[in-house]
Design a protein that fits this description.
Length: about 425
């Protein structure tokens, strides 16, 4: 073992071939031969595994997995696998993380690993009274929930809290019970849904009402991941860039039309890591957007302000229900290999890295938008897609992409004509 600290600053990574990049990741993460072979194999989901994962499976679709370099989270360098079909997303994280690396990178935390399940009760004549009657049974509820999953309890998780709300709804008040359960390294949907279903008959018995829904809430606000970082002024290009970015944030904070796009940029980073690790992208996305609207008006998930030293300080906070055990995370060998690259041993560590990536992604988009615009960088990368789309092959792809960027015309009709020229057919 070398005594040198592992660094995510890998010079020239983007210029290497995919094979050389994988070798660099292998060296960084100490990947075993199986993980390397899995990552090196294109179309790497066995049809039999796929057939067990979903119903009526006929095929699989491959999405590129890129590696974000330059990321330092809580003092530890990490290489972050990101699964995305969108060009610019991985590059944006690399660039954004590089600009805060020397200043310490990202500091992260979580509020916990608690999930919430809801039990909907209707037809109660005395909802306020029923609410109190359910709350009185907290010890019974705890025993019933923990009895559903002794393994979870042995791992330090289990029932944590009981909340009962009376909500006004069409057709009359509903009594909604929340069980709060620490699901530790599991995302926890199965655990809490089982508990909610098991608890429902008792709630009906205690109240005389009728239970309908018993299901987790994706507004997982007991499972928040947080990240913050400060980008020094000289790293980002000075006060004008900082102020432009703060203005961009203020726009998102004030306007839901802009906030939706601003948050979409954050989710470009978040969902890519969630997907690469086999976690549920829809659960995280639903939670993020619901959390963004928790004050009654949809707004930015991140905040940006001038730091005391004049730099640019960003924060991000959002629900992050991701796990390391269960579901596709455990079954999909590429997800397993991606977790090895990340070197995480708890769901909380994974959640924290994802929050850091979301913040980096947001920084990258805001900086481009507040300065040169998004199209310059995006089109340079998108040109490769356009070149591929018109049939460019091998070295033609890079050459054709460069021509399109040079002409500032990243369009299929232009690409087809230029490809014909390259091949001497026009
Ligand atoms: C594109 O996928 C994401 C952006 O629109 C995000 C943003 O506008 O902040 C660039």
């Amino acid at each position: 073992m070398s005594n040198h600290p592992r660094t995510s600053r890998i010079s020239g990574f983007h210029r290497m071939s995919p094979g050389d990049r994988l070798a660099a990741v292998e060296g960084f993460a100490g990947l075993d031969a199986d993980a390397v072979a899995q990552l090196a194999r294109p179309g790497n989901l066995d049809p039999q595994v796929a057939d067990h994962m979903i119903e009526n499976c006929v095929s699989t679709i491959s999405i590129p997995v890129g590696i974000a370099t330059n990321v330092k989270v809580d003092g530890r360098d990490v290489l972050v696998p990101m699964a995305t079909e969108e060009s610019s997303v991985v590059a944006a994280v690399c660039n954004s993380a590089r600009q805060c690396y020397e200043a310490g990178g990202f500091t992260t935390s979580v509020s916990g690993t608690d999930m919430i399940a809801q039990i909907q009760l209707v037809g109660v004549p005395d909802p306020e009274n029923a609410r109190i009657r359910i709350l009185e049974r907290k010890a019974e509820v705890a025993a019933l929930c923990d009895g559903c999953d002794p393994m979870l309890v042995r791992l330090g998780g289990g029932f944590r809290d009981l909340e009962v709300r009376v909500i006004a709804a069409q057709g009359g008040p509903m009594v909604v019970t929340h069980i709060v359960v620490d699901t530790r390294d599991a995302m926890g949907a199965n655990a809490v849904n089982t508990m909610a279903e098991r608890l429902a008959p008792s709630i009906e018995e205690w109240t005389g009402g009728k239970v309908y829904l018993r299901i987790l809430s994706n507004l997982a606000d007991r499972r928040l991941a947080r990240a913050r970082a400060i980008w020094p002024l000289d790293a980002i290009g000075g006060e004008a860039v900082r102020d432009g970015m703060i203005a961009a944030y203020r726009f998102a904070a004030a306007d839901p039309y802009r906030a939706a796009t601003h948050n979409k940029g954050i989710m470009n980073g978040v969902s890519a890591v969630v997907l690469a690790t086999g976690n549920d992208t829809r659960a995280v996305e639903a939670g993020a957007h619901a959390y963004a609207a928790r004050g009654g008006r949809y707004t930015s998930l991140s905040t940006w302000e001038a730091a005391a030293d004049g730099g640019l300080a960003g924060t991000l906070e959002l629900p992050m229900p991701v796990g390391l055990v269960g579901g596709a995370t455990k079954v999909h060998p590429t997800a397993q290999a991606c977790l090895k690259i990340l070197g995480v041993s708890t769901a909380a560590e994974l959640a924290r890295i994802i929050a850091a990536v979301g913040l980096a992604q947001n920084f990258g988009a805001m900086k481009a938008l507040a300065t040169v615009g998004i199209q310059q960088g995006h089109m340079a990368l998108h040109a490769h897609n356009v070149a591929l789309a018109v049939g460019a092959d091998g070295p033609e792809v890079g050459r054709l992409a460069a021509i399109l960027v040079e002409k500032r015309q990243v369009r299929q009709d232009v690409a087809a004509a230029e490809l014909a020229k390259l091949r001497g057919q026009a």
